Structures are given as structure tokens and as C-alpha cells.
Amino acid sequence: MNAARIIAVLEWIAGMVRVVITLLALYIYVPLVLSFFPWTANWAPKLFSYILDPLYTILRVVLEFIPNLFFLLAIALVTRYVLKALKFIFREIELGNLQFEGFFQEWASPTYKLVRVLVIAFAVVMAFPYLPGSSSPAFQGVSVFLGLLLSLGSSSAIANIVAGVVLTYMRPFKKMDRVKIADTTGDVVEKNLLVTRIRSIKNVEITIPNAMVLSSHIINYSADAAKDGLILHTTVTIGYDIPWRKVHELLQAAAGRTELLIEERPPFILQTALNDFYVAYE
Asked: Lesser CB count within 10 Å: N end or C end of the chain?
């Protein structure tokens, strides 16, 4: 903290002290002056009560809240250490040091986030009765209003979150997989609870809501490519004046010069259409 900042803080403290001293002087001076005159002498106790009664009420509420404060501290401590234990367990699963049959490593982080939300929600429910004013109708009315506002205003967001959770455990793709979602083709660069981001082959980043991803068909080109390879194909149209055997021979020779071919799976040619003026080969 530099000197200018320290001076500003000291000036603010001095200003607050001046305000408190002024209010205290007025609080003592005004009733004292009123008590000097018989027709205003009865007003002095009332003025004192107007200020002292709220202070007494606040002090009483604070003293009554002290036992509940210990319950809140206990709930906070237990919740904190439970979350630390869960974080350690899921971290070990993510690193591969702890394994469970049927539970994949990429599930560790999202599962921990879901469990953390549930634990915090459970702790809030337990702590709610010990909060000051929790039993008052006003506090309950505000809670109901906020809950209703949240449920009505975030229906699409909740749908995307639910879809994101379902996609996480479906495992249709991983980060950097080449996929096709509906009419969008590209590499997955990010997947969170709300959206999936894809970078197309033209280096355009496309954001797709998870609800749309879940309702669309998904083609993953990278799922088995490393183990079993991937069949890449294109369509070539050639007129009827070229013999189909010659076309097959030339296309197979061209495909054979492609790098990274699997020798056990040689290229093959399909005739997909016989049109009016040409044949479509794949």
C-alpha cells in the first residue's frame, strides 16, 4: 500500500470518527436542552427511547444469535473438510492412482463438481434454520420469490446444464476429437456444462448449446481412428466414355499413393449412381 492510499484510508477513518462524535454530541445536547423547559421536558425521555430501544433490540438479537453461530461454524467446518476429502479422492481418480471398474478418469472432475454442489446445498439447508430471521414471513417470502424467479428465468440454462451432464457420462467425444454435430464439422476445443465449442476446418470457432448437441446426431471421426483407422472417401464423377475398369484402376492407384494407409485394408471403389451423363464413383 503506497503513501497516498494510506493517507486516503486515514482521512476516511477521521471522517467517520467526526460523524460519530457529531451524532453523539447531538444525541446528548438536544435532550439536555429540551429538559431545561417544562413544556418540552417530557420529550427528552422519548428521544432517548427512540435511539436506545433499537440499539437494545440489535444487542439482544446478537446475543441470542451467538449459540446459533456455533452451529453455523460447525456446519461450515464439517462441510469444508468433507469437500477437501472428496477433492482428494476425485483428484486421485483423475490422475489414475485410484481406479474403480466402470468409472472413467474423465468423469472425475465433473463428478466432483456435481457432488460439491450437492454437499454445499445440503449444508445450506442444514444451516438455514440457524440464520437470524429465517423464521420470519418476510425472509421466507423473499426466499420463495428468488426461487421462483430463478426457476422461470433460467429454464434454458438448466436444460443446457442437464444436457451437459448427460453428455459427460455418455462420452460421445473428447477434447480435440474431430466430430460432426448436425451440420457442423470440426475439432472439439472445449466442453463445459453449458456449451460445446468446435473449431471448424476453416478455423472458425462455433459455440453450440449442449441441449442442441444432445438432440442432434453426433458423428465422431476420432473415436476409433487411432486403433482401427478411418475410411476417408470422396465422390468423383466421370463420363460414360471412360471404361469403368480403367476408372477403378486409376482411382485405386491414386488412393494407393496416399500416406498412412493400413496395408491390411486396401482402398476400394464404389459406384454410387448412374446418372444421365456420368457415373458417380466413391
From this structure: N
**What one-character-per-residue DSSP string does 173-193 give?**
--TT-EEEETTEEEEEEEE-S
Helices and strands, counts by H and E, the chain: 8, 8
- Can you give the residue range of the structural domain that contains 219? 163-227
Q: Is position 32 within any domain? A: no
Q: What is the pLDDT of residues 40-98, one digit of tens each?
A: 666 666 666 776 777 777 777 777 777 777 888 888 899 899 989 988 888 888 887 77
Q: How many structural domains compose the chain?
A: 3
208 shares a domain with 243: no
Q: Tell the residue number behind the cell numbers 471522517, with chain if given.
A: 15
In this structure, how many other beta carbons lie within 10 angstroms of the beta carbon of residue 160?
22
Record the cell numbers describing residue 114, joined without a space. Answer: 456435481
pTM attached to this predicted model = 0.59
d(C-alpha 86, C-alpha 120), whole Å:
12
